[in-house]
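Before relying on records like the one below, remember that each one covers exactly one chain. Contacts with other chains, cofactors or solvent are not represented anywhere in the record.
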Amino acid sequence: MLTPATQLLSFVIIFVYAWMLIVAPNSMEGLLLFQPQTLLEHGAASPIHIWHGDSWRIFTALFLHGGFLHLFFNLFVLRQIGPLLEPTLGTARFLLLFLASGLGSFGFSLYINGQLAVGASGGLFGLIGGLLVLSFFARHETIGFRLFIELLVVIALNLVIGGMFPIIDNAAHLGGLIIGIILGAGLLADRSFIFFTAPPKEEKDVDDAVQVQTQKLGSPRMATWGSSLGLTVCVLFLVLGFKPTDRVHYHVTQAHDAIDYGKKDKLDKHLNLAQLIDPLHPSVALVEARVFLHNNQPNKAKPLLVAALSNLNQSTNHAWGVALRHIAPTANTDQQLFHDAHFTNALCDEALALTLTEPVIELINNCAWFLLTTKNPQYHKPSKAIQLARFAVEKAGADVPPAILHTLAEAEAQTGRPEEAMVMMEKLLLEQGLQQRDYYQSEYKRFVGLTQSRKKQTSPQNVP
């Protein structure tokens, strides 16, 4: 059967992904995960941008994907669902169901999570919801009943898996599913379901080996009410997502934005509202800590940072990363992620103190890297960084991760020993299957240049 809508959506999704691979600064990154800033530049659904007026992002984000696996699984689901649903639903209604579910799912996600989001998953869950309704209507037939049960299992598994991995936007999936079920019921109600049945055993006519039957799925009234209600829910989710004033994350995000741009009135307004909604929320504590740090009151910020790190995640290292993403949700580079040096330095101090008895080498390495790469001269401390980097390498044992060895090499170079850094990178490049080899190769060349420059400066002819 022809499925033009399925083919069109498949083409658009693949084309957008291929285009991003071509224009991305590092095309290989898209084979794993595109950087947040790359996704943002191509139209990802960024909460702060949408709340500042970029409402078009909820449409463009529907056709973006975070990486190859994200694209592959969504495309696989689309190619499985399309031939089952589109022939009965029709091309135009199939597209309407996908778009309404996808757009509404981003609205629901903005309201529930308020995180950077991309992907066709919300629209696909809407199609799954439509197919669930179709199989329910045809449940009296064996194939319809089996499909209904299988879809329920698939939906349950996806929601459970989504709950286990924070990177998966379960809110968008659930929002798309809700719209898909309601709107799908309306769009299918005045359609006929075509199915095939075997004739009774007593009929021996070979020509009648298979009978084609049709079944009306609903009524015109159901079609009107279901379609209207489904579109209403879609609009409701969008309205809630565009200005979720009763949600802590909305005011916290606006407060961080106000700190970045020095808007005191806006900061006071949103911080007060966040405190009214949930004064004990760890994200509120992070805003309060930033305010104290910017007012040169580190002693007041310290207990707030400790409380936030203890409640954001069971792992202090993960909590450290989550805290930084609160203030830089679309950061690509270390400089972007560490743009608030006062906050990052204080956060590192408290995180390292919390893990003093059970050191976490990734956290130690991240804090050392901050001290080496920050542009703020107050916190650029290579001598402290090299102590942390050496400790991380020692704790890593015989199999030192490349990123940790590279941090130590950078620390050696910044403390006047570029030849040591050069030797470390040379050994690292001998490893088989080294990821980011091009990057480490360029770093090796940089350290070689620093070593040669240092030798020229200390050669006898340069000594007066």
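DSSP finds 23 helices and two strands in the chain.
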